[in-house]
Amino acid sequence: MAAITRGGRAVALAVLTAFSLAVSGCASQEEVAQPTSGASAGTGTIKEGLKIAFLPKQVNNPYFDASDNKGGKIAVEEFKGVYSQTGPSEASPSAQVSYINTLSQQGTDVIVVSANDKDAICGALQEARTAGAKVVTYDSDTNPSCRDLFINQASAEGIAASQIKLISEAIGEEGGEIAILSATANATNQNTWIEMMKTELAKPEYAKLKLVDTVYGDDDDQKSFQETQGLLAKHPDLKGIISPTTVGVAAAARYLSASEYKGKVQLTGLGTPNQMRAYVKDGTVKAFALWNPSDLGYLAAYAGGALASGLITGKEGETFKAGKLGDYTVGKDGTVLLGDPFVFTKDNIDDFDF
Fold first, then answer.
1. What is the tens place of the pLDDT at every residue in 307-320?
2. What are the Cα distances from residue 166, in Å, to 172, 266, 292, 322?
3. What is the model's pTM?
4. What is the rounded distance in angstroms from the CA atom of residue 246 to the CA atom of residue 228?
5. Which long-range contacts (CB under 8 A, 24 or more apart) does 47-50 make?
6. With b meaning 16 or more CB within 10 Å and e meaning fewer, what string describes 289-306?
7. pLDDT of 107-120, one tens digit each?
């Protein structure tokens, strides 16, 4: 999945500056009109008036609020398109199908979707593409045949490696039992990361860590809270929990922070600074990771605009400009990589506001 390298930008700098840039106002048309296709060496501008709809796994999720409303929306406004967000209130495999059908019927130019299931929405997406829509997946992919591009937030290998490294450092040299609190059982990205975490755990340096359980909170706060409680009851010798989902890691932190396990059971995962700040400062969490979700949505919008304007087709080797983020190249299987995960600790968390 690590098919793309970012042109000329350091990931840490992007994370540090993304939100201040995003809220500073819309750029001029001249500033955003430079996407190019490396395959054809052509130049052109993103068409004005494109209807770009974001369809997250679930609405009213802080992660997708940041990626869509603080990233995608800003990008669409920059190239003078029409932005919208729609989706289910609960994450489930088939919940997105009716929304895709509606967006297709409304003549949406670009559907940007984070898939709850890599197969369940393929039929609806193919119908939308036949009707003329371009499909960009972000955060969680479908089968490649069902979309035009996938905007990958970070390489699966990089995410898995960072999660295992962080939990190992938090627990210490003595090691011990660990568990994973995931989102839904069918989430493509979660399952890929989990399998690669298992591969990472097989390395000699992690021989003292033992994965004893994987549970699913379905990206629901209360269920994730209860699953954390259940893990600790079932595994009294548990030393650490990895939750590679923003809903799950915040719920787990909330439970641990008010329990007898605070400071005894370590926690890491993928979270946002605003969710995790209190738990980092009170010692419940030593470190966690994430890419910048607003950058992810911003890049997805520009990729969709370039597709719908005929500047790229999704072919490997094509290049396009994504506004303030710079140049990107399409890689294998129509994948575009945002960058590497960024680690948040008590020393830097107050530098961020998302």
1. 999 999 999 999 99
2. 10, 10, 18, 31
3. 0.71
4. 14
5. 47/305, 47/308, 47/309, 48/79, 48/80, 48/81, 49/80, 49/81, 49/82, 50/76, 50/79, 50/81, 50/82, 50/109, 50/110, 50/304, 50/305, 50/308, 50/309
6. bbbbbbbbbbbbbbbbbb
7. 999 999 999 999 99
